[in-house]
Amino acid sequence: QVQLVESGGGLVQPGGSLRLSCAASGFTFSSYGMSWVRQAPGKGLEWVSRINSGGGSTSYTDSVKGRFTISRDNAKSTLYLQMNGLKPEDTAVYYCAKDPSGSGSDYIFGYDYWGQGTQVTVSS
């Protein structure tokens, strides 16, 4: 069965960095687009970034452009999110999600599998 397991979250000071990982299994990882989605306390789901199946096409929500980098290692079936210059408003539970297409999209309600999430807290 499909499994997505996030790791790498934690508590970090403003301006710090974290790298999230999402280990995928149960499907041909290299064939599908993947995304990161976050949910801040008391707020709805927010799409953060997407990457296509081959890793050559990425996109980001405006609030993280220039600070976050999405990448993937298809040989390891792992998705990453490098987060630099973290701000308190980045505090959220971060989820990785599988897109049913190879190109990926920012349409979060179209994702067919989700991980359990990892907490990122940015605070001094």
| Computed structural class | mainly beta
Low-confidence region ranges = none
* Gyration radius, rounded: 13 Å
How many DSSP-defined strands? 11
Task: Using the alpha-carbon principal axes, give the shape.
Answer: globular
Number of helices: 0
Helix-strand pattern: EEEEEEEEEEE
Mean pLDDT: 97
Helix content: under 10%
SSE topology:
Elements: E1 3-7, E2 10-12, E3 18-25, E4 34-39, E5 45-51, E6 58-60, E7 68-73, E8 78-83, E9 92-98, E10 113-114, E11 118-122
Structure description:
It is a single chain. Strand 5 and strand 6 form a beta hairpin. The protein is mostly beta strands and 124 residues long. The mean pLDDT is 97. Helix content is 0%, strand content 47%. Strands 2, 4, 5, 6, 9, 10 and 11 form a seven-stranded mixed sheet that branches. A four-stranded antiparallel sheet has the order 1-3-8-7, with no helix packed on it. 33% of the residues are buried. It has no helices and eleven strands.
What is the structure about, briefly put?
This protein is mostly beta strands and 124 residues long. It contains no helices and 11 strands.
Q: Can you give keywords for this protein?
A:
4-stranded antiparallel β-sheet, single chain, mainly beta, 124 residues, 11 strands
